[in-house]
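User: Fold both of these, please.

Assistant: Here is the first one.
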Amino acid sequence: MIYYFAAMAHVRSSLQFFDSEYPFNVRFFDEVINGLYENEQKLSSLITLFSLVAIFISIVGVFGLVVFDGEYRRKEISIRKVFGSTTTEILVAFNKSYVRILGICFVPAAPVAWYAVDKWLENFAYKTPMYWWVYLVSFATVFILTVCTVTFQNWRAANTNPAESLKSE
């Protein structure tokens, strides 16, 4: 510690010798690096927050779409029930269309996400690999949430009495 103060005093006197008007502002490299990583941690927190908000909005959007579609196709569900379809067959038919939409949306989203993350990771001194299974896990998570939402909402429509849904309004 004594050497630290002695070295700082020597640097200050040398700077005064060459240019007495130049300000003596010392910043250590580890402090600069820590400042950069603090910015990255703040950015990471913001990305996490906005990702959670986006996920919440998308789940609410899927839920609203499923509610609208279920009410719109209520008579179709009732006719299917009259013709002998089981609740499981009706739920599979509904889920199939939403899973198809999910797959169509995931195909362009995965390369865009990979490219964005790859460009972001180029800014770091130490590289970390991007694993393919991260995209698979994210797709599986969205898939499970979508299927659960569709199944939960359409279960009620598939189990109602067909006679009540087919009454003319």
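And the second sequence with its predicted structure:
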Amino acid sequence: MTLKNSFTPPKIGDAVTFRKTMTVAEQAMFTGISGNLGGLYVDRVKAREAGLADMAVFELAAASLLSTCLSRLAGPGHRIERWSIAFERAVPVGASVEASATLTSSEAGRLVFALSLRSDGTSLSTGEAVLVPVSPA
């Protein structure tokens, strides 16, 4: 028996939201991946001295949740061409982050999405991503 994956292309206004709690373990893994040993991200004392409740979640780790939304909306035939995102505030490790992407335009396979990250109803960041069809290397 052969199963076929069927995918319906998104329509303008389609959106996906993905929520995840950002854990200390993931923070440690991202430190290993990025090599970033900045005090706000790996040292609770320094983070608290800076006025945060706990270590700050790596901004790019939080933003990576958006890739889940984009993948679910655009499907396997698209890749990120570019994105821009503005981070408005730090979020402490242990917080739940809600990532959202909404399709705002589509032309010739090029998809443009509005992006947002929120935690406890507070905006963390906004931005835009452009996805394009995958082409052979």
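The CA atoms of residues 87 and 125 lie 4 Å apart.
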